[in-house]
């Protein structure tokens, strides 16, 4: 069974510094997708970034990048130049099978990030 | 529409009543998902559709929960004979090669 683990319940980072949020996963499939979402205190779920298991390059979206280490089964989110508005809960998620084939996402427990001024 | 729309935003009901939660996905999105999220937890998968076909309903907790998407667009999640343990945020998401993108959710409170 697939499983997502986020071992950091809470993290602090100084404004303008970079921060890494950890995510490890467990799957026996060769084809899968990894996702990160941001959930601010307002409660919305914001899609940040996606990485396919066959993608050779690490995914990047603006200040977000995904440090994908397939052999270690890790998919850490790196946020560069942290901003106060980055303070939120961050969820890692995985979906088995190909990205365009639908399928359920399994979420981790989340990491609460607090950015200090 | 521009984003995934869910209604109502809040629903308070008495134990034993039926509730219907509505999701209007992003126009043209093939896949539609229902999740439930307890406070401080990650979203928990309930079910998902491709077009009008329910592909996976393995996450529905019991037979009081059902979902439909009859025309491949709007979906309804129905909870019959609600119980207090059903209280949670119910989230809908849709995707079409990007995302999935989530709606704002329906906060259900069963008294």
Outline the fold blueprint.
The complex is a heterodimer of chains A (117) and B (111).
Chain A (H helix, E strand, L loop, with lengths): L2 E3 L4 E5 L4 E3 L2 E3 L5 E8 L6 E7 L7 E2 L2 E6 L4 E6 L8 E9 L9 E2 L3 E6 L1
Parallel strand pairs in A: 2-12
Antiparallel strand pairs in A: 1-4, 3-9, 5-6, 5-10, 7-8, 8-9, 10-11, 10-12
Chain B lengths: L4 E3 L2 E4 L5 E6 L6 E7 L6 E7 L2 E4 L8 E4 L6 E5 L8 E8 L5 E2 L3 E5 L1
Parallel strand pairs in B: 2-11
Antiparallel strand pairs in B: 1-3, 3-8, 4-5, 4-9, 5-6, 7-8, 9-10, 9-11
Keywords:
heterodimer, A: 117 residues, mainly beta, 6-stranded mixed beta sheet, 4-stranded antiparallel beta sheet, 12 strands, globular, B: 111 residues, 7-stranded mixed beta sheet, 0% helix
Describe the structure.
- The complex is a heterodimer of chains A (117) and B (111).
- Chain A has 117 residues and is mainly beta.
- Chain A is built from no helices and twelve strands.
- Chain A is globular and about 40 Å long.
- By secondary structure, chain B is mostly beta strands.
- Chain B is 0% helix and 50% strand.
- Chain B contains no helices and eleven strands.
- Chain B is globular and about 40 Å long.
- Chain B starts with a strand and ends with a strand.
- The chains are: A mainly beta (117), B mainly beta (111).
Secondary-structure element pattern of chain A, one letter each:
EEEEEEEEEEEE
- Low-pLDDT residue intervals, each spanning 5 or more residues of chain A: none
Q: What's the count of strands of chain A?
A: 12
- Shape of chain A, please? globular
The low-pLDDT segments of chain B are: none
Return Rg of chain A in Å. 14 Å
- Number of discrete helical segments of chain A: 0
Number of strands of chain B: 11
- Which secondary-structure class do the elements of chain B indicate? mainly beta
Q: Assembly state here?
A: heterodimer
Number of helices of chain B: 0
Distance between the termini of chain A: 41 Å
Binned, the helix content of chain B reads under 10%
How big is the Rg of chain B? 13 Å
Shape of chain B: globular
Q: State which percent range the strand residues of chain B make up.
A: over 45%
Distance between the first and last residues' Cα of chain B: 33 Å
């Amino acid at each position: 069974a697939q499983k997502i683990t986020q071992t950091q319940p809470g993290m602090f980072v100084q404004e303008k510094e970079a921060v890494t949020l950890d995510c490890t996963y467990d799957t026996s499939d060769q084809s899968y997708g990894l996702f990160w979402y941001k959930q601010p205190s307002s409660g919305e779920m914001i899609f940040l970034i996606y990485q396919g298991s066959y993608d050779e390059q690490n995914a990047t979206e603006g200040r977000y990048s995904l440090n994908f280490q397939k052999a270690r089964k890790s998919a850490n989110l790196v946020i560069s130049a942290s901003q106060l508005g980055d303070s939120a809960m961050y969820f890692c998620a995985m979906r088995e099978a190909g990205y365009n084939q639908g399928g359920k996402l399994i979420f981790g427990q989340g990491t609460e990030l607090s950015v200090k001024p | 529409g521009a984003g995934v729309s869910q209604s109502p935003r809040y629903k308070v009901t008495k134990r034993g009543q039926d509730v219907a939660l509505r999701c209007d996905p992003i126009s043209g999105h093939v896949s539609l998902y229902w999740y439930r999220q307890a406070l401080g937890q990650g979203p928990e998968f309930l079910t998902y559709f491709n077009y009008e076909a329910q592909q996976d309903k393995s996450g529905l907790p019991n037979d009081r929960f059902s979902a439909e998407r009859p025309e491949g667009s709007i979906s309804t999640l129905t909870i019959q004979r609600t119980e207090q343990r059903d209280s949670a945020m119910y989230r809908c998401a849709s995707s079409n090669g990007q995302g999935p993108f989530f709606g704002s959710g329906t906060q259900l409170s069963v008294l």
